[in-house]
């Protein structure tokens, strides 16, 4: 049961691209909560680091911080690093340069996005935006992913759950998942394109280097491809943060 003044720290990776960060900030501004809330970035955003966010909340008298990871998968190695830095884990399975932050407030770790129903609905909207009646198309979900044992399986589980939901919702011929870090994007895209038209949905929080450069490089020469949008901008990202806050306040 919650005790003491609470606040919310939304965790995000951060990007050298100001537009990526702006989308995150906009989503957090639209979160409806009476609790003090701020964003802490893992990197690339000066003055808004995770430790800056904790200090901001603690200055407001917050004694219990709900950390909401704005990451698409619990399998992200970055989340392992952040949990180590916050003292949630004694050791990190990933080599990290992050230093211990040692917050004064109690830290409550919330879940990442994974296959939450809101994420499914966002992807459904991305499908409808491109293909109102996807009957002869195939779908490929593309994520950053991880090749590391103990992390790859978490990525694959969440992606497969998303894929299964979308396959049940739409009459795609085939639905597959792929990950840049595993290196199977191009192979799966070529296989599916031979079966018919192909819709590629990036399972990424926002547009950036991986969506605009890396994935498109993998798709070069693959015919009949329609390319969808990322989670942001979409109002359900803000609603998801609200749900996480309400769920974990009572833990």
Automatic annotation (TrEMBL):
InterPro entries tied to this protein: CbiX-like, Sirohydro_Cobaltochel/CbiX
Keywords: Lyase, Metal-binding
This protein's record includes keyword Metal-binding: yes
Entries under CDD domains matching the protein: CbiX_SirB_N
Any GO MF annotation of the entry: lyase activity
Xref: Pfam families: CbiX
PANTHER family: SIROHYDROCHLORIN FERROCHELATASE, CHLOROPLASTIC
Protein name: Sirohydrochlorin ferrochelatase
């Amino acid at each position: 049961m919650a005790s003491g003044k609470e606040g919310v720290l939304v965790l995000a990776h951060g990007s050298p691209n100001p537009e990526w960060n702006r989308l995150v900030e906009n989503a957090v501004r639209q979160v409806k909560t009476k609790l003090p809330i701020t964003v802490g970035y893992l990197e690339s955003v000066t003055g808004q680091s995770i430790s800056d966010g904790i200090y901001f909340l603690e200055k407001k008298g917050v004694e219990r911080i709900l950390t909401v990871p704005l990451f698409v998968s619990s399998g992200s190695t970055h989340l392992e690093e952040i949990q180590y830095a916050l003292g949630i884990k004694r050791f990190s399975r990933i080599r990290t340069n992050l230093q211990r932050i040692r917050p004064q407030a109690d830290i409550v770790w919330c879940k990442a996005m994974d296959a939450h129903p809101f994420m499914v609905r966002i992807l459904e909207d991305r499908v409808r935006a491109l293909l109102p009646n996807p009957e002869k198309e195939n779908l490929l979900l593309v994520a950053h992913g991880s090749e590391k044992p103990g992390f790859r399986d978490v990525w694959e589980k969440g992606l497969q759950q998303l894929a299964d939901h979308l396959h049940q919702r739409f009459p795609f011929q085939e639905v597959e998942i792929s990950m840049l870090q595993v290196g199977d994007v191009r192979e799966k895209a070529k296989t599916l394109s031979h079966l018919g038209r192909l819709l590629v949905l990036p399972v990424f929080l926002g547009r950036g280097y991986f969506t605009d450069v890396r994935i498109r490089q993998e798709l070069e020469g693959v015919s009949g491809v329609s390319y969808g949008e990322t989670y942001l901008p979409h109002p359900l990202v803000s609603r998801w943060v609200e749900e996480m806050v309400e769920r974990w306040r009572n833990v």
